[in-house]
DNA sequence: CGAGTAATAT
DNA sequence: TATATTACTC
């Protein structure tokens, strides 16, 4: 179960041995891991201060350096956070509101704000994930800045939305949109964004990275079986999806992982997706494995028809290897245009307006994926994935559901 | 001013 | 690094 309390232990706080290492930020992973205890564990500020004080007598009582208590954003806590966002719905995802909804003792607005900020950029990773993933920090120069400016999520102040280049920039600020568009940005913004960003897919290249879906409540992992993606559903609202950021070649390799488990709150429903792929010029040299998850987080959308057009897709997958992304080679998916039409079955369903297709490879050792917010996030390792699940190249795509698929793979 | 966010500090 | 704090805007 999820706990309601903040795990606000201070970095060294929980540890019996106070920072012997340093007086300030012993906030190391190890440390964290050690203190990874339960969620209910709250260490009060006072205690913390006291401890510190004892430890270092020269500290002023009310000053206490500067990080008072740190909230450890555990997966559960984060989940709760996310849930709050969801609950709040459009226009209300502001720290203050979030705090209220979360109703976690000790959790402050600023803390939430900080977390929110982090999440906006998709930079947050759950502790669990942190453990497993090693670094990857490599390159992220160019796109980074873009991303920053472009990734807004949750309710944010709409203020400068001036020149939004185009959809690439990103989708709605608030991922949950309603069909009506009254989407509100309660704080006075207009819903122009919706207009600006009609439903569409986007594909972006990115570098190999580990999929975070498991740890990220944003995502619901889903399985894909024969072209049908199963999603976990939570609410009628479209949830936020994230995409990974990428930049270069997509390295691919694939495998599919049948269900993964995570989700703190998952109830799901299965929706059907129809994918129509049109792949032109595709070459695939496939190596092998690794499992990506396809993450589509989303809910309540019942039917999507996806038309995916991938042009010029070349995929070379190396063998996977972990930790070395280099030997995996270039996959380039130059373009994937996906058009998708959705059928909104229910009135209050929201629809995705911005979906990102990406592929990712799961290479151990690399993680750093940043995801960007989008309404839909599809993580394909590479086109092979499609073919595997949807149909082999050259084969007809399964059309089991009512829609007709436009086409089928034309290979060169 | 309070609140939200970007940027920065720790 | 993750989170807290600051500085700024609105």
From TrEMBL:
| Location(s), subcellular | Nucleus
Positions of the region Disordered?
Answer: 1-28, 123-160
A GO molecular function term, named singly, is: DNA-binding transcription factor activity
Q: Per its UniProt record, what InterPro entries does this chain match?
A: Homeodomain-like_sf (IPR009057), LUX/BOA-like (IPR044841), Myb_dom_plants (IPR006447)
Q: Does the UniProt entry include the keyword Secreted?
A: no
Keyword list, A-Z: Nucleus, Transcription, Transcription regulation
- Output a single Gene Ontology CC term carried by this record: nucleus
Q: What is this protein called?
A: Uncharacterized protein
Does the keyword DNA-binding feature in the UniProt annotation? no
Task: Report the domain of life of the source organism.
Answer: Eukaryota
From the UniProt annotation, give the residues forming the signal peptide. none
What are the Low complexity biased-composition ranges? 138-149
């Amino acid at each position: 179960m999820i706990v309601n309390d903040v795990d606000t232990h201070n970095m060294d706080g929980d540890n019996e041995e106070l920072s012997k290492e340093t007086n300030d930020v012993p906030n190391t992973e190890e440390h964290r891991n050690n203190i990874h205890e339960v969620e209910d564990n709250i260490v009060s500020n006072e205690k913390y201060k006291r401890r510190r004080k004892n430890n270092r007598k020269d500290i002023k009582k009310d000053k206490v350096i500067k990080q008072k208590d740190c909230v450890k954003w555990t997966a559960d806590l984060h989940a709760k956070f996310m849930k709050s966002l969801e609950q709040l719905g459009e226009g209300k995802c502001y720290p203050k509101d979030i705090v209220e909804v979360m109703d976690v003792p000790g959790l402050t607005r600023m803390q939430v704000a900080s977390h929110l900020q982090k999440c906006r950029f998709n930079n947050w990773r759950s502790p669990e994930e942190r453990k497993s993933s090693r670094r990857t920090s490599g390159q992220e120069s160019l796109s980074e800045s873009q991303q920053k400016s472009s990734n807004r999520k949750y309710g944010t102040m709409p203020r400068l939305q001036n020149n939004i280049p185009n959809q690439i920039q990103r989708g709605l600020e608030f991922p949950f949109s309603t069909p009506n568009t009254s989407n509100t940005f309660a704080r006075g913004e207009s819903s122009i964004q919706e207009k600006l960003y009609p439903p569409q897919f986007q594909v972006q290249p990115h570098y190999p990275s580990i999929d975070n879906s498991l740890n990220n409540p944003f995502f619901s992992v889903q399985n894909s079986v024969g072209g049908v993606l199963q999603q976990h559903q939570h609410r009628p609202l479209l949830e936020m999806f994230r995409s990974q950021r990428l930049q270069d070649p997509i390295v691919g390799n694939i495998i599919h992982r049948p269900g993964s488990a995570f989700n703190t709150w998952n109830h799901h429903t299965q929706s059907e997706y129809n994918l129509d792929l049109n792949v032109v010029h595709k070459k695939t040299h496939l190596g092998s494995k690794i499992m990506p998850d396809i993450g589509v987080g989303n809910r309540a959308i019942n039917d999507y028809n996806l038309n995916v057009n991938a042009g010029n897709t070349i995929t070379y997958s190396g063998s996977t290897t972990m930790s070395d992304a280099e030997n995996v080679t270039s996959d380039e998916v130059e373009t994937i245009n996906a058009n998708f039409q959705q059928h909104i079955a229910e009135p209050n369903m929201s629809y995705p307006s911005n979906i990102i297709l990406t592929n990712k490879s799961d290479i151990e050792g690399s993680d750093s994926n940043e995801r960007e917010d989008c309404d839909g996030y599809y993580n394909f390792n590479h086109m092979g994935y499609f073919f595997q699940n949807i149909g082999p190249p050259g084969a007809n795509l399964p059309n089991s559901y009512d829609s007709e698929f436009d086409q089928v793979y034309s290979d060169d």
